[in-house]
Amino acid sequence: xxxxxxxxxxxxxxxALVGAALALxxxxxxxxxxxxxxxxLALVYGLFAFGLDIAWGRAGVVSIGHAAFFGLGAxxxxxxxxxxxxxxxxxxxxxxxxxxxxxVIGLAGLGRxxxxxxxxxxTLALTLAVSQGARSWTGLTNGSNGLVVLSDSGVVxxxxxxxGIVLGTVVVVWLIVxxxxxxxxFVAIRLNQQRAEHLGIDPWRTKxxxxxxxxxxxxxxxxxxxxxxxxxxxxxxxxxxxxxVLVWLAVGGLGTITxxxxxxxxxxIGNQLLGDVIGSWYLLMMGxxxxxxxxxxxxxxxxxxxxxxxxxLREKAAGGAVLAGTGAPPPDRSTATAGGPVLRARDVEKDFxxxxxxxxxxxxxxxxxxxxxIGPNGAGKTTFLAVLAGEHVxxxxxxxxxxxxxxxxxxxxxxxxxxxxxxxxxxxxxxxxPAQNLALARAEGVHPPAPLAxxxxxxxxxxxxxxxxxxxxxxxxxxxMALSWGPEILxxxxxxxxxxxxxxxxxxxxxxxxxxxxxxxxxxxxxDMEIVRELxxxxxxxxDGRILVEGSMDEVSAHDEVRRAYLGVA
Length: 570
Ligand SMILES: Nc1ncnc2c1ncn2[C@@H]1O[C@H](COP(=O)(O)OP(=O)(O)OP(=O)(O)O)[C@@H](O)[C@H]1O
Known about the structure:
Layout: H1 2-8, H2 11-30, H3 33-58, H4 67-82, H5 87-109, H6 116-136, H7 138-141, E1 147-148, H8 154-178, H9 181-191, H10 193-198, H11 203-229, E2 231-232, H12 239-252, H13 257-278, H14 281-296, H15 300-309, H16 314-318, E3 343-352, E4 355-365, E5 370-374, H17 381-389, E6 396-401, E7 404-405, H18 411-416, E8 419-422, H19 434-444, H20 453-459, H21 471-485, E9 489-493, H22 501-518, E10 521-525, H23 529-535, E11 538-543, E12 546-551, H24 553-557, H25 560-565
Parallel strand pairs: 5-10, 5-11, 8-9, 9-10
Antiparallel strand pairs: 1-2, 3-4, 3-6, 6-7, 11-12
The structure holds adenosine-5'-triphosphate.
């Protein structure tokens, strides 16, 4: 427990936390009542921006209607105050309403087939619906006139209560969510959903959790804001407020706690101070500010400061998440097959529109076997691999892993059964360093094997990002990730593509060695016959979406049709 806590909280964090707590405690002694009220407001808006950041900045879930959740929390507190209901009950009501709506929106907008823009449209509709609801349900909300919420604790009391709740919420969420396995998974799905899925991370569930946490924090911020703002009217959950919080976060910088509070603080305090002077020009100013930030400082003020002080690359995209494992117990991933094939496909057919690409493939792969799929361009090799991996659902036929029918199972579930994947274009986390890529893969691994020499050169590479590696190294990194994750079956699509001859042969030897050492089953699509000869126990030749012939390299090479159609021998 203590060790886990130590892993999550470094000395620097502890100092920053103590510093923040001391500064917040000292503020009432240093500030007059008006600035103190402004600071209180900035804190609750900062918490709101922090809430939005969990969805948008951390997990990449777009929401342009987050004020709906903020407004629900504020109305919960305001209605409780107006009707003499215990405040906590009102707050709980607002938070639960926000969670329920977030769940509905998330289930509709984050499904497998939903587009990224679906969430934008749904959250926009939500903010309009909630503010209109508040306008229309006059019996509960007092319509456009709003509800007055009086604070009974004075300026200083309200400030301390607010600061305590804000600090407490941020610390708890940071410690439990952002520094835990969820925070790591947020980073993974935001940076490369394809790779995340093939590490066994469920992207839809992870995004839904991010949205729920985000909505809950935003509603809590709204509830705490109610006595600070004083008058809760429909605009609190409207589109202007939803847009403002986006601007705060963009200005401060996505993916950092400092950015959320800095952006909210600067814009809120600036608005209050400038409000009398610029009046309704404020909205125009916000729009211009947003455009300037997006154009010239897409990483916000925090990004600007970081580039000035040159923070190490490894801290950039990880956003403070702990990418190394936290020692959680491995989920069930039994591929015990009782002697049957570890991977089986029966009568698989796949069409793209009217074009049949796979036309009835049967394949059994034994545990520990190395199978190479060869065939002319367009034969359907990559498509078949994608069907095995769960990226394409076949029109007909079935696929089993270790005796379990996985035909309808998505890629991440197959990954959790031990199915690893390498792509023709290496799929790694480009914005992370090689060492971070490896740490993340290992942390998500189910039975990570003892490190191989292949990983050595990457474990310490922290001075460049994966996107800056040459292709051969990126491919080696992808392989190192897949292997350090610990697959029981590994699907590889042209692992030697783009490599020099020496690198290709070295790669084939490494794969052979890994297969023999770990017992991992390999199914590889490959064009280079030298690699195939080096690697394969069995060669399967595909042509026109069907198996033409299979057997040892010598057997298939002797086949007339293969020699003509594929090996180019007359
Ligand atoms: N997503 C898709 N939508 C439509 N057609 C597709 C799609 N993916 C593949 N195809 C088509 O299916 C056929 C088989 O493609 P596939 O990539 O599986 O062949 P391949 O044997 O792997 O070829 P190569 O060796 O060139 O990679 C091709 O004609 C290709 O254009």
